């Protein structure tokens, strides 16, 4: 077979595609000498490999990458979005089905936040979805305690700086008032750490419930807390076409 007919890819990309780690962390594994190709240790992330090459990660054979898959998950309150936690707090990975292949989360939700969390078996898709340049909208339902003042929401709509960190403009609307609390609908195109909580606190509103109901084309829908459901191949194909 002519080499021109063989599909070659960068080694770091292949590792990320197989879900070993993110592209950046895959490059670190290569630099550290943890990866071999055809039983020869390589140190260059740009090394080109084909499906016929034998790749090992710390001595263990890398299986051929699965086709790209994405799952929707309804994260409950009280779980962190991490595989391991130094404080031994429960993680979302503790409650995922044991039959699930190795997956990584797309973005995060903090300990006390709930709602839609996406998982994938593909490190490259994770990276693409998380980049601000993807322009994927995150939608939230937010309950906050405090006195609602529409003029202060304009600060969030225009973009606000909190402790020296700038947040992009948010789409935000006041839905209703219930006792000492107010409900809001919020949409943003980035996912900085505790962004909504910090922005609301800057206008004297204390978030006491935060539910993500959408991430790009994916919605929470009728998922029960703790429920996981794979995205259909038809929908996934439409989504991936946008990132091709």
| Outline type | elongated
What separation lies between the terminal Cα atoms?
27 Å
Q: Please compute the radius of gyration using only Cα atoms.
A: 21 Å
Mean pLDDT: 89
Structural class: alpha+beta
Helix proportion of residues, in percent? 10-25%
| Strand element count | 17
SSE pattern: EHHEEEEEEEEHEHEEEEHEEEH
Uncertain ranges? none
Beta-strand content estimate: 25-35%
The helix count comes to: 6
Q: What's this model, at a glance?
A:
The chain is an alpha+beta fold and 244 residues long. The chain has helices at residues 11-17, 23-31, 123-130, 150-158, 195-202, 233-242, and strands at 9-10, 35-37, 40-41, 48-49, 55-57, 60-61, 70-75, 104-106, 114-120, 138-145, 160-162, 165-167, 171-178, 181-188, 206-215, 218-219, 228-230.
Describe the structure.
The chain has 244 residues and is an alpha+beta fold. The protein has 6 helices and 17 strands. It has helices at residues 11-17, 23-31, 123-130, 150-158, 195-202, 233-242, and strands spanning 9-10, 35-37, 40-41, 48-49, 55-57, 60-61, 70-75, 104-106, 114-120, 138-145, 160-162, 165-167, 171-178, 181-188, 206-215, 218-219, 228-230. The strands form 4 sheets. Strands 7, 8, 9, 10, 13, 14, 15, 16 and 17 form a 9-stranded mixed beta sheet that branches. A 4-stranded antiparallel beta sheet has the order 3-2-5-6, with no helix packed on it. Strands 1-4 form a two-stranded antiparallel sheet. Helix 1 (11-17) packs across helix 2. The two termini are 27 Å apart. The relative contact order is 0.16. The mean pLDDT is 89.
